[in-house]
Design a protein that fits this description.
Largest sheet: none
Number of strands: 0
Helix content: over 70%
């Protein structure tokens, strides 16, 4: 027969064991939850990066189209008027279009 002291000792040991098991279980659950959050964030970040890339391409495509329109219009005006200011405006528009295209090549290349 066990004495009261032994029962109390075994009870304490059992309690400590159960607390340790519960702590390990909770730690495992926390690790799994943290890994899931990490996975979700990575997926979300990838999706956002993809969407931003598409938006960036659309905006820059629109900008290039507008710059091309300005080049074409200023060229027509300069061809008609032969005014040095109109010719300078066309050259400036061509320069800005070329700079935009060069920047986009760098972005696309990286």
């Amino acid at each position: 027969m066990l004495t009261t002291e032994q029962v109390t000792s075994y009870g304490t040991l059992l309690g400590v064991f159960l607390v340790a098991v519960a702590a390990q279980w909770n730690a495992r659950a926390a690790r799994l939850a943290a890994n899931q959050v990490k996975t979700d964030l990575n997926t979300s970040n990838d999706e956002h990066a993809e969407k931003l890339s598409v938006i960036h391409d659309l905006v820059n495509g629109g900008m290039e189209q507008q710059l091309t329109n300005v080049v074409n219009l200023t060229k027509r005006i300069a061809d008609i008027t032969k005014d040095p200011n109109d010719i300078a405006a066309n050259l400036q528009a061509q320069k800005e279009l070329a700079e935009h295209q060069a920047k986009q090549l760098k972005v696309k290349g990286s």
